[in-house]
Amino acid sequence: MPTGAIFKFHNDLDTDQIIGSQYLLLPDLEEMKVHTFESLDPDFPKKVKAGDYVVGGENFGCGSSREQAPGVLKALGVEAVIAKSFARIFFRNAINIGLPVIVCKELPDDVNTGDVMELSLSEGIVKAKGKEYSCTKLPEYMQNILNQGGLIASLNKEE
Q1: What are the tens digits of pLDDT across the range 15-62?
Q2: Mind giving me the DSSP string for 27-38?
Q3: CB 89: neighbour CB atoms within 10 A?
């Protein structure tokens, strides 16, 4: 199970807080990613490491439908986003680009930024602070899509 640090955020975190609209004019995700969570934690892009996790509360990724929001998280190497619930369009965009998004009702209340966790996508289990949490287990077909880099990559391989 991949182990990584947690970066915890609040309920109703919207896509503008993930990546501000003024940065959507930049040419690509590589240039955008240095502005991820800029209004909440300007040093986030410097602190997050590949394999780390973003944890949120209810309605994570609400707001606009921009696919750059999950895109910058993936570009920074975030292993997965775990939240109590997701805005529907953020969830779909994340799966489309291959960023795992997992619903876990209890975990966000028990952890803080800097805690370490492990995630087993195939089992739907998170381990953190000596406790095991049962999370939504993605169906096998969705796990296959993620393993191929997302829906877009999966569809491109079928052509």
Answers
A1: 999 999 999 999 999 999 999 999 999 999 999 999 999 999 999 999
A2: SSHHHHGGGTTT
A3: 17
